[in-house]
Write a structure and sequence with these properties.
302 residues, OB fold (Dihydrolipoamide Acetyltransferase, E2P)
């Protein structure tokens, strides 16, 4: 079975500012885009408003392209014949509407060496405004963490990846930040990401006058920004949801082929778990080696 990469939460500003590629050197090995804040991205979880979509036909093959707007800018999506679930789903989604998509990132370099990044969704679903706000909150938190970690690394001088792991970063974070700082050749534009976080907080807290300011660097910024408490599922509650999904997978696997995803989504929704939350939990369980995908339409407990 093939382990899937964790889906990163990034705003459009960070993804579209990314120009570094780590290309696979072995067959079937993943490739990555590294963002200026050190996110080492193979897959992303994005959310926002599907503002437009376009169907393209090439003989018997159908492809789609579209634009998803978040609080900071636009994600550009491309769906081809090798993404049958996403292709079938986007055909039935009206624009404009709130959507979430999970997919792989792709970079295209033009003749004049400009880099454009797009997302190739594995699946795309309609979501509520509440779920969209949950994504905005989590993405703001993860963006702030990367920005804060970058500040810490710059203050540590010639710190190694091992030093950064000892300081509390994950190995992936330590690699990504050092790789970004070594290869972009300049400090990331903190004002750009502070503006993005500010826009996110204004979306979440419209009654408050959120103003972070836009300094050239973070040297005088606080180590933390007070984020509103989420109503999402984490901690012990997250463990309960994982156990619930595992039990549903076992219950729905009536023929040994695995649990049909459509039925799993229906049952999960009845338990108060949205499609986007189900995708997140499924990814976590796959990362833990507890479930796998025998094919795109089924999920099976190991």
């Amino acid at each position: 079975m093939n382990a899937r990469e964790t889906a990163w939460r990034v705003f459009a500003t960070e993804l579209n500012s990314s120009t570094l590629e780590i290309k696979a050197t072995e067959e079937k090995a993943p490739s990555y885009i590294v963002s200026p804040l050190g996110a080492k991205i193979n897959r992303v979880l994005i959310a926002g408003v599907l503002t437009e979509k376009e169907k393209m036909e090439f003989g018997d093959d159908v492809a789609w392209k579209g634009r998803i707007q978040d609080v900071s800018g636009s994600f550009f999506i491309n769906i081809g014949k090798y993404q049958p679930e996403a292709s079938a789903a986007i055909a039935d989604i009206e624009a404009p509407s709130f959507v979430a998509a999970v997919g792989r990132v792709r970079a295209y370099t033009t003749d004049d060496q400009r880099v454009f990044v797009s997302v190739r969704p594995e699946n795309i679903v309609n979501i509520s405004e509440t779920v969209r706000k949950e994504w905005v909150l989590e993405t703001a938190k993860s963006t702030w963490r990367r920005l804060s970690n970058t500040k810490r690394v710059l203050s540590m001088g010639d710190a190694t990846q091992e030093d950064l792991v000892k300081a509390g970063m994950t190995p992936t974070e330590a690699f990504g930040i050092t790789y970004a700082l070594d290869n972009y050749g300049q400090m990331p534009d903190s004002a750009l990401y502070l503006r993005t976080i500010q826009a996110a907080l204004r979306t979440l807290l419209p009654d408050r006058d959120v103003d972070l300011g836009f300094p050239e660097d973070l040297s005088n910024e606080p180590d933390e920004i007070d984020m509103p408490e989420e109503n999402g599922n984490n901690g012990s509650n997250g463990a309960q949801i994982e156990e619930l999904i595992l039990n549903l997978l076992e219950e729905l696997d009536t023929d040994g082929k695995g649990a049909p995803r459509e039925e799993l989504e229906r049952r999960a929704e009845a338990e108060g778990i949205s499609s986007i939350e189900l995708e997140e939990v499924s990814n976590i369980l796959m990362d833990k080696g507890l479930v796998y995908e025998p094919n795109l339409r089924y999920l099976k407990r190991i």
